[in-house]
Write a sequence for this structure.
């Protein structure tokens, strides 16, 4: 086989590996018990060589999971020991520092043997709805309060599941059937990946993955370093302030572009918070790498080699490098703001490339439902844990508007109302786009949402808020206006906090206004046609069209007439 033919064959194999891990991820979506996996896609899947280096990742999944998991497999190999790795094994952990950042992520790794020889590993991660402890939220003062900890250990050895482990897990969580079901789903999806890999190896006559691994990693590293080498050799700083739990948090970063790497240094960032919004370095690294890769090399495949030139540094004890036993349950809140902080610096080096700030962190909440306590409850009242994923608007891009109710940087999907209400006795009374929430600009920020949340008759609930942008809305870029802030209250006007567990009595509802993304560029430069289209579609009100974009009363009347006539000229 000539070198040219060899390279062609390796490229075919590379594409096949990506399809293998995507099938692996889709198997997890189809078999998982938790709605966070089935409906929101809060998962990841990947294939690794015998050294634990990520070769390919699934398209489905989140960068926080997959980029953190890129470091995790080496921990599994070290903890288990190569002498204890057997065919049919499955390994598990939810270690925040050797997994993906908090106890609510279960990571499973399975060795892949071909003709009796270890050729690589498959790994996958899923967010699970409950892991015991205080429940999913920011209220804990240490990781010990946040739930059951599973060190890196064997879920199964030579095909036999550790039933003692299963009993311990079932005895410590609120939703044992869901959690154990998800663990089996994770193990199954790795098995699907293994089967497809061995089929591929048989088809191409491979005895190991050494050749294809070298091809993938060498080409990815070369492409990434070439891309970095073409950038200006400059240093820039960026920062942003977010709500925090009780006091604001400042994230600071210094970006240095060298010939063959980019250093991202978070020195100067706020220290640890007393509550569970702290972020382990592995998760900070995941989103810092993701931000840089999106901006400078989005088309280069994501693997160990393409990530290696991104070097991430943060002093221990800062909120982006939390060490044990810091509480880290809501590490995503800080982690999801890392890209916007990095972009504040990168925009000074590469103007016209990165978007304005968006909602940032997911607008999640968890509802812990139980029979009402203020009066007799109906016999069919239930106890249930319902986690729902929602999004504010993303920031406007240099050439395009921000996306409405779309999560950046996580990419996690919003859960459908039907799936949320099926999971327990919760009712979503309202869920619609929030007009005027996207920041004005030449390119408009994405819209947030209105939501109204209650419970079925006979239930009260604890509402676990996980929001930010209440006091610090998304900032515009290049003259763009800020997005709308988050607002939260009960339907009787009782104020609620943006974070923490809060009691909602029987009959009350929670009223949410989720944040919008910021605008990009001067609103005066927005084409009149685009302003009219936004008004026609209800994205902005007449007041905003007049105030922010200078649309005339005559044009507004024309659009309003079209709305009354049921026409959409756009």
């Amino acid at each position: 086989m000539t070198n040219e033919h060899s390279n062609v064959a390796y490229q075919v194999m590379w594409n096949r590996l990506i399809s293998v891990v995507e099938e692996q991820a889709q198997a997890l979506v189809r078999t998982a018990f938790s709605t966070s996996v089935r409906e929101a896609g809060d998962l990841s899947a990947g294939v690794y060589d015998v050294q634990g280096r990520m070769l390919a990742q699934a398209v489905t999944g989140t960068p926080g999971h997959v980029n953190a998991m890129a470091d995790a497999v080496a921990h599994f190999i070290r903890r288990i020991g190569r002498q204890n790795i057997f065919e049919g094994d499955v390994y598990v952990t939810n270690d925040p520092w050797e997994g993906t950042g908090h106890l609510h992520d279960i990571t499973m790794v399975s060795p892949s043997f071909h003709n009796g020889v270890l050729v690589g590993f498959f790994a996958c991660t899923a967010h699970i709805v409950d892991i015991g402890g205080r429940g999913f939220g920011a209220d804990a003062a240490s990781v010990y309060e946040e739930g059951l900890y599973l060190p890196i250990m064997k879920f199964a050895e030579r095909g036999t599941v550790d039933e003692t482990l299963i009993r311990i897990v079932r005895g410590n969580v609120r939703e044992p059937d869901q959690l154990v079901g998800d663990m089996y789903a994770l193990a199954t999806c790795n098995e699907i990946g293994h089967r497809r890999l061995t089929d591929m190896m048989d088809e191409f006559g491979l005895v190991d993955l050494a050749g294809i691994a070298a091809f993938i990693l060498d080409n990815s590293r070369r492409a990434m370093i070439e891309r970095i080498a073409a950038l200006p050799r400059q240093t820039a700083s960026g920062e942003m302030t977010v709500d925090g739990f009780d006091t604001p948090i400042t994230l600071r970063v210094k970006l240095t572009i060298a010939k063959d790497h980019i250093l991202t240094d978070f020195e100067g960032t706020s220290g640890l918070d007393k509550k569970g919004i702290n972020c382990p370095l592995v998760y900070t690294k995941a989103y810092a790498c993701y931000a840089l890769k999106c901006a400078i090399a989005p088309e280069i495949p994501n693997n160990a080699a393409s990530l290696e030139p991104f070097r991430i540094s943060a002093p221990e004890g800062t909120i982006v490098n939390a060490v044990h036993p810091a509480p880290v349950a809501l590490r995503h809140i800080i982690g999801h703001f890392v890209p916007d902080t990095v972009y504040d610096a990168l925009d000074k080096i590469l103007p016209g490339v990165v978007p304005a700030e968006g909602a940032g962190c997911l607008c999640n909440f968890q509802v812990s439902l139980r029979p009402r306590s203020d009066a007799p409850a109906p016999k069919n009242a239930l106890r249930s844990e319902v986690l729902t994923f929602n999004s504010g608007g993303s920031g406007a891009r240099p050439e395009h508007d921000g996306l409405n109710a779309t999560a950046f940087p996580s990419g996690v999907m919003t859960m459908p109302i039907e799936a949320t209400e099926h999971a327990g006795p919760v009712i979503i009374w309202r869920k619609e786009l929030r007009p005027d929430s996207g920041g004005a600009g030449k390119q408009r920020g994405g819209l947030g949402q209105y939501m109204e949340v209650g419970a079925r008759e006979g239930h009260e609930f604890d509402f676990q808020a996980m929001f930010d942008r209440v006091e610090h809305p998304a900032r515009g870029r290049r003259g763009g206006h800020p997005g709308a802030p988050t607002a939260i209250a009960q339907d009787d006007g009782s104020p609620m906090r943006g974070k923490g567990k809060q009691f909602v009595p029987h009959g009350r509802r929670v009223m949410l206004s989720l944040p919008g993304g910021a605008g990009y560029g001067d609103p005066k430069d927005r084409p009149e046609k685009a302003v009219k289209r936004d008004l026609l579609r209800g994205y902005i009100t007449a007041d905003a069209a007049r105030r922010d974009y200078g649309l005339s009363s005559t044009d507004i009347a024309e659009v309003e007439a079209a709305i009354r006539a049921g026409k959409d000229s756009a």
The chain has three domains: 3-220, 355-523, 527-570. Residues 375 and 458 are 9 Å apart (CA to CA).
